[in-house]
Amino acid sequence: MNLSRIRNDLEQFAEALSREEYLTRAGLKDESRASVIRERFASLASRSTFAEVRGAAQEASDAEEARRLRFLAEFLGTNSIEYQVREASDRLTTAEAAQTIAVDGERIPLRSAEVRIKNEADRSRRAALESARLAAVAELSGLRREILERSHQEAERLGFAGYTALCRELSGIDLLALRDLTQPILSRSLDMYRELLAWYLRRRVGVKLAEARRHDLVRLFRAPEFDASLPPEALREAAEAPLRRMRIDPQAGGRIRVDDEPRPKKTPRAFVATPRIPDEVILVVRPGGGPDDYAAFLHELGHALHFAYTDPHLAVEYRRLGDASVTEAFAFLLDGLLRERGWLRRFVGLTHPADFQRFAAFHKLWFLRRYAAKLEYELILHDTSPVSRCAEVYRELLAGATLVDWPHELYLAYVDPFFYVARYLRAWIFEAQLRQHLRERFDEEWYRNDRTGPFLLALWQQGQRQTVEELAAELGLGPLSLDPLLAQITADLA
Fold it and tell me: What residue ranges in 4-89 does DSSP mark as E strands?
């Protein structure tokens, strides 16, 4: 086992794959060739190499080397699975880019459909768009099932009892404990959520709660009534001005590039591509209008800043691997500015920001409920064969969490690999604790304090060397707890 070579190959592989994913997801090329890149670096998918590194991590006496090896083992194990499904993944990416839907004689790229739905005020046309989109998504379910079921099989070939066991061991996240920690979100917020949802649907969309469908929620969270207050031309300055007040360069010395071109085949889901960390970071968003644009840009800017300010001298495991909840927490910290009344007033120019702050908090609550249900669902999904049996389970759990009838056709569409849902949930919890800490240490309007910037930069420089639990302990925040998160949302809704 040549660890130096493995680490060097990892660096080159990550750069090549990131560039390819950027081009295909940004709508700059139609056909994904990620499988070719994976084949070029087939040594990183070797089961024997994974087994060696896994064993070395368990036996390492040096704590720092053990940490690096654990992160490396997680990458090698998950990459081995992704290698086995590489061709099917390419077919899925290519098919998604090529897929169109037909509504009223118009052909619309599948990746543009969600944007069209959220911008469609007419409910009957919105329902037609949704129906056509769901049919197109269902056509791709076969490929998604193939990828998922083959991933399950490969987890067993790697020596694990199943996919969930692999994810639990390699990530170090106790998924069942996390489910038990986050499930109370659903019960503790139910009455408040139901009341607010009914009010917003009736007031903003003209739909009763009992009649609401997923596409009504998509329209609700588009929130066109705030367009005049959140114009697209003011977005960049509103996001970057507080960074400068904190003594943070928003472009990180030119290392961050923004791709906000509205290409038809660009994925509607914003993301950050990281060809070279920290030297080349690409923030990719697809403008759809309204608050979503602000939230997506701020979120991805949080990722971009974290990666662009990572210490370049860190080991590749700490720059490229580690606990992704860390970078998600920094992303949530930035998009959480939408719930900061002072930021809305000072940097967006809202003279009466309470209405928008309340709406943003409600949107956050919806996400939390959805993801708590998503974790429960994925624990069932990854323990069920065949996975097609889970379509109704998905509909029931998501409908129970959102209180809106949920399409079963989406039962595989939003399943991110390797329980990434757990990274989001842990990030939300830690971010709330971090935000509370910033307020106590640097004032209520921490985003205007020039001492906040150096503090955040010091955290970002660590990359993902530490887990969110370790960061919380280091900062004296205690164990991960729902209480600060729910308390902040409740206060914002008051």
Answer: none
Q: How many domains does the chain have?
A: 3
Helix 141-157 with 123-139: angle, nearest 10 deg: 40
SS3 441: helix
| List of residues 6+ apart from 76 with CB closer than 8 A | 6, 44, 45, 46, 49, 50, 53, 54
**Which neighbouring-strand residues pair with 273?**
282
Bridge partners for 284 per DSSP: 259, 271
127 and 232 housed in the same domain: no
Supply the pLDDT for residue 286: 86
CB 300 within 8 A of CB 331: yes
Question: pLDDT for 372-409, tens place per residue?
Answer: 999 999 999 999 999 999 999 999 999 999 999 999 99
**Residue 123: how many CA atoms within 13 Å on its side-chain side?**
13
CA 357 – CA 349 distance, rounded (Å)? 13
Work out whether the CA dihedral 383, 320, 3, 81 comes out positive or negative: positive
Amino acid letter, residue 4: S
Structural domain includes residue 205: no
pTM over 0.70: yes
**Chain mean pLDDT for the chain:** 96
Residue 73 lies in a domain: yes
